[in-house]
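re: ur question from the group chat, yeah i did fold both. here u go
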Amino acid sequence: KAWFSAGVWFAYIAMVGSIALLVGTLVQGVGNLRRAPEERTQQILVPVMPGVNLPWSHMLYFAATLLLAGVLHELGHAIAAIREQVRVNGFGIFCFIIYPGAFVDLSTEHLDSVSAMQKLRIFCAGVWHNFVLVLLALVLLMCMPYLLLPLYSTGQAAVVTGLVEGTAVSGPRGLLLGDHVTRMDDCPISSKEDWEQCIVGVLHTPHRGFCQFADQIEHFNTAVKVHKTEHGMVECCNTNTSLSELCFHYHHSNLSSQSYACLPARTTASGPVCRSNHDCLTAGHHRLKLTRPNLWPYGVFCLFPALDNNTRLVRVRHNREPPMLFLGNPWELYYHAKVSSYMPRYDFLPLELPEYLETFCKYLISLSGALAVLNVVPCHALDGQWILSAIVDLYLGKLLPNRRDRDAVAGLISLFGTVLLGANIFVALWSLIFR
């Protein structure tokens, strides 16, 4: 009894909260229709349409979580009904086009014979169990690293679990499935979140240079006439004869003009990182002095790749040698390589299992939470309609002894909830289809 009574109190709070949420979402949605697409704010409630805002690859997650949330919702009604001595005529599942669901058939005669509070415990049990499912999925998601600890370790690297074939990321000198990525330039990586933050950091950080000795520059330089490409990039290499060389620019310490050199990209990028010639003379780059004491510090320069603002030369370190040297837009790393924070302790363990579990929990939180929020709205054909009717009977029974008057009050509030929910769905669909 205490369990289902707690569900009643949750439904009270959720009903008020859901109405406030729908009002706020409607105001936000109408405001977004008046704004340019790039100025629109992210809406909290968004209709899910496979192939539009739901990838077909996630359809199994969507169907499984929607079915589980629906079954537990209806099971809550059934268990509460049995406890209140209301007969359950039937229980089943169905599929409407591609959307699975569940239903429970309760005896109308038995429902009419119980008190308003008993009805509330039955009607509120569905959304209550959806909310509990959200809490369980949230706890499971937060405890996932500890639950999988005997099988997977975390906090050491980002593990490559997927690659788009035919891209620079998956080339002969690119990444392989199972690689443990530990660093991107000077940004350390110990998790999936670090990987994403490092990509953003590389994109928003000015081009970094690499220290190189003057005689090495002179020895390897194969520069041709400096010219600008049709994309505005400076080019000094003969791209028809070599794909491993890259154009670099640098400043002589006593001159303000730029000099250009066409050098082997991998060899040059293996030098210490710098932002200016002065960086190559600091204590942090003392290994240059140790290798070439006769040239240090006057014969060392900081070389920068001659690239546009969206292109970067990125050095990605992993558990194999040599490190991957990536040339392109850093976002390609994000879209063409999929990584995980979980490192398998045994070779037979699938790389993507933790990600499958995390994604399933996230869908449970999202869809079961949405079912709880929407079902408690006082709208026709939803649980909220019957919950509201029982609330009116419980608290307005003495004030409005006539059943017809109580039904009229509940009907007016339900009409408002129906219009509010319908308006939200219309605006959301309009924004989704005609965005």
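okk and heres the other one u asked abt
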Amino acid sequence: MSKSKHNGVDPSLLIDKYGCDTVRMMMLHNVAPHTERNWSEKDYLSMRNFQIRLWKLVSQALELQNEDIPELRYEGEMEEHRATLRKAKNDHLRYINFNYNTRNTAVILAKLNVLTTAAWVVPGKVKRDAPEFQEVLGTILICLAPIAPHFCCELWAGLASLPVKNFQDFDWDLSVLEQDWPQLDPTSNLPLKLRANGKDMGTLDIAKWKFDDLTEDAAFDLACHHPSIQEEVLPHEIIKKDFSFVEDFEASLTLIYRQDKEIFDREAMLKKKAEAKEAKKAAKAERMARRAENIKRVQELEKKKAAKGIKPEKK
């Protein structure tokens, strides 16, 4: 597909057919904007299904407030669903915010789709009464708005007309494009990844309020409480620490330690293996030489017997 070959797709034809928001989502949902791709209108179905589910979620939020809904199955189920929605929001919002910075829209749309599923599967009573449901649904619309502004503005207008607004952190009088960008909860966990001498040692979950001020020394102090670090790293001399930090996403701490030469020295181990291999080859060569010498001696003996007219013994 090339402009010079005049075989490109005319965007205006697709916009007339599907609408500008849907075409933009089709273009961005499985590759980053700077990546080459093979264009296909088959992507329309997945984007259409995503839009339909969002539209139905907003419709359910409105309709369920006027309905009598059966109680949940057991005491504490509401709190379980609320906790699940909070975790889903924080887990996926972490990737959404990071990939908006790196402009990887394929990951953004994938995470929004998964977050939509998390809101879709909760019972009707949770959709009606839980503040977290309205928070998740509003977060999806705000995060999708830069890609599909017309679609999200329409849905936000419907969501903002809810008679009972259980979640109060949105400014419901403003449009979706004027809302503050969603942020992670201070009590949500972010990962500190641990590595040592090229080996993954594990991950520590750090609360965001502590993660925001994380330093190399603080990360090392936390790492010292990890069993793998205690058993495999701390008994040795640590010669280097490498700390990296990505705001609101993840941090990593890489440790380089001096290994005991008798046990852990890789070069010595490889040398020892090579020496053993050479010794094995030398032993094999010696056996082959002895065998050849024995065969030669037997052949000479047979020749002498033949020269004297003695028939060789039958074996």
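fwiw on the second one: The mean pLDDT is 90. The CA atoms of residues 274 and 280 lie 10 Å apart. idk if thats what u expected
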